[in-house]
Design brief:
The protein is mainly alpha-helical. The chain is built from 6 helices and no strands. Helix 2 runs antiparallel to helix 3. Bound molecules: fe (ii) ion (2 copies). One fe (ii) ion binds next to helix 2 and helix 3.
Length: about 190
C-alpha cells in the first residue's frame, strides 16, 4: 500500500472515531456526577423507607393487627417502587445506579398510634430530602431531572396527608374502635 493511501486511511479512521464520539455527546445528555450521587443517595432513603414500613408490618402482625400489617406491606412495596424508578432514571441518563448501605431500621413500637406518628414524621423528613434534590437539579439547570422529581414532590403531599390522616383517625377513635380501623386498612390493595 502506498504511503499516501495509508495516510488517507489513517485520517479517515480518525474522523470516523471523532464523529462517533461527537454522536455520543450529542444524543446522550448525561446526568452530572453530583446529581447521579444525590439520586443514588435517595435510592438508599427509599429502601430505608421500604424496610421501615416492612418492620412496622411485622410489628403489627405480631400484635394481631393484620389490617395495619397489610397496609404497611403495601406501603413498603410502594417505597421500593420509588427506588426502582430512580435507578431506571439514572441509568437512562447515562449514569450508574448503585445500592448503597442501608441503615438499620427501628424494630418495635409501643402502639399503632406510635407507629403511624413515626410514619408521618418520616414522610415529612423525606419531603425535605426530595425538595433538596429538586433544588440541586434547578441549580444545575437539569430540566429533565427537575421534571422527573416533581412527581415525587406531588407524591410526598399524598404521603404526608395519608399518614397524618391515619394519626388523626386513631386519636379520635380511641382504643376500643382501633380494630375497626385495622379491618378497614386490611382492604388496601
Ligand atoms: Fe418514597
Ligand atoms: Fe413514602
Amino acid at each position: 500500500m502506498k504511503k499516501n493511501t495509508v495516510k488517507a486511511f489513517g485520517a479517515l479512521f480518525f474522523f470516523v472515531s471523532l464523529l462517533s464520539e461527537v454522536n455520543q455527546f450529542t444524543y446522550i445528555i448525561m446526568i452530572s456526577n453530583a446529581l447521579q450521587d444525590a439520586l443514588n443517595g435517595q435510592i438508599v432513603n427509599e429502601i430505608f423507607s421500604a424496610n421501615m414500613y416492612l418492620s412496622m408490618s411485622f410489628y403489627f402482625e405480631q400484635e394481631g393487627f393484620d389490617g395495619f400489617s397489610n397496609w404497611m406491606k403495601k406501603q413498603s412495596a410502594e417505597e421500593m417502587d420509588h427506588a426502582y424508578q430512580m435507578a431506571s432514571y439514572v441509568i437512562k441518563r447515562g449514569g450508574t445506579a448503585v445500592v448503597g448501605q442501608i441503615p438499620a431500621v427501628k424494630q418495635t413500637w409501643t402502639s399503632p398510634l406510635d407507629a403511624f406518628e413515626d410514619a408521618y414524621k418520616h414522610e415529612c423528613h423525606v419531603s425535605k430530602l426530595i425538595d433538596k434534590l429538586l433544588d440541586q437539579a434547578v441549580a444545575e439547570g437539569d430540566k429533565a431531572t427537575e421534571d422527573f422529581l416533581w412527581q415525587f414532590v406531588r407524591e410526598q403531599v399524598e404521603e404526608e396527608a395519608t399518614a397524618s390522616g391515619i394519626v388523626d383517625r386513631i386519636k379520635r377513635m380511641g382504643d376500643s374502635a382501633i380494630f375497626n380501623l385495622d379491618e378497614q386498612y386490611g382492604k388496601r390493595v
